[in-house]
Specification:
- By secondary structure, the chain is an all-alpha fold.
- The chain has 18 helices and two strands.
Length: 368
């Protein structure tokens, strides 16, 4: 066996493995290793089997990379406009999602704007320990989980239900009118929505005026801790339900119409068609979105909570986002605020991984 090129020539049983070097197939490598192992020590070359394997592996990887470049070049020429179209999105994620990851190191330093990121004192997990030892940690954890689970239980199913109902409408004009109407709230900012809420639910708002005129007493909706979580959930449902139906309507449109025809032949009515054809058809989409939603359990939106908060409801309104802003940003403790953000992200990542594994064990498709 003889090897040519960068590796010294080796003669074994009068056979060459030049083909192994030129192609890099692992079968030839294994043959070489087996034959080297049965030869006497004095017959072996200075080049070991491990050296040969590493060399062949390097050449194989190089060949794969060159082949990929050759295959990518005509693709770029044929679909260059698609790449140009994707460029703004790629730049967005690069600039605002990947480059800022370097700032996560702030959580492990005592950051000072005067010293900069690289010269600030390294303190390790000090800020994490301070955060977990804070007496307010469990209060923040309770409020965040409560609001998030209310959104999952009450808000998450709403787009699915609305999409199923819209799918049953036969009047196309009415269906489009309804879709347009329920999409509009998504484009309103939380400032506008909270402003509407204050105008209607405050002590001098429209609803309380109607209550008083009908002989009742005014209800303090905005300052009542018992109604705060429900009010937040109701606002989220009103604002985002319509927009959330888009992806489910797209999933419904992908269901094969022949399945409905077969169900009709079998005598299935509209309800059974929805139960045995429609819902199973979008089950995969629902599971994937639920898994991704679990990754945002501790990220419930700063703007919404901050605008609705007041001193009267602080006990039920203070969450991780508002706490990081109040204690971290306003007090100049940027490293502490970063530590809070990392904690939220790690918990979300763990929940996504666990939910994905559970979905796969149940026979469903996961996120990856």
């Amino acid at each position: 066996m003889r090897i040519i090129g960068a590796i010294p020539r080796i003669q074994i049983a009068g056979m060459e493995i030049q083909q192994a070097w030129s192609t890099g197939w692992w079968g030839d490598i294994q043959i070489y290793v087996e034959r080297m192992s049965v030869l006497p020590d004095q017959s072996r070359s200075a080049v070991s089997a491990d050296d040969l394997k590493r060399s062949l592996q390097t050449k194989q990887a190089s060949n794969r990379f060159l082949n990929w470049l050759k295959s990518w070049k005509p693709t770029w020429k044929q679909e260059k406009y698609l790449y140009v179209l994707a460029l703004p999105g790629l730049l967005y994620f690069l600039i605002f999602k990947y480059i800022p990851l370097w700032g996560l190191s702030l959580a492990f330093t005592e950051y000072s704007p005067y010293l900069g990121l690289f010269k600030s004192e390294w303190v390790g997990f000090k800020h994490f320990q301070s955060f977990f030892a804070n007496p307010d940690f469990w209060l923040l954890f309770r409020n965040t989980l409560a609001i998030s689970f209310l959104n999952i239980i009450l808000f998450f199913p709403m787009p699915i239900i609305i999409a199923l109902l819209l799918n049953e409408l036969k009047n196309v004009t009415f269906k489009k009118w309804v879709q347009t109407s329920i999409y509009l709230p998504h484009f309103l900012s939380w400032v506008v929505i909270v402003g509407i809420c204050f105008l209607t639910l405050s002590g001098s708002g429209i609803i309380n005026k109607l209550v008083v005129e009908s002989g009742g007493q005014a209800i303090n909706f905005l300052t009542n801790p018992e109604t705060f979580w429900g009010m937040l959930t109701a606002q989220t449902i009103w604002k985002e339900t319509g927009w959330g139906t888009i992806i489910f309507l797209a999933a419904l449109a992908s269901i094969n119409p022949e399945l409905y025809e077969a169900a009709k032949i079998d005598g299935a009515n509209r309800w059974k068609q929805m139960l045995y054809v429609t819902i199973p058809g979008i089950k995969g989409t629902v599971i994937i979105l639920l898994i991704l939603r679990l990754g945002q359990v501790l990220d419930i939106g700063f703007e919404h909570i901050y605008l609705m908060s007041s001193s009267a409801v602080t006990e039920v309104a203070d969450v991780f986002d508002t706490y990081a802003y109040r204690v971290g940003i306003q007090n100049g403790r940027f490293s502490f605020a970063t530590a809070v953000g990392i904690f939220k992200s790690v918990v979300g990542l763990i929940l996504v991984l666990l939910a994905d594994r559970a979905a796969k064990k149940l026979g469903e498709e996961g996120v990856y």
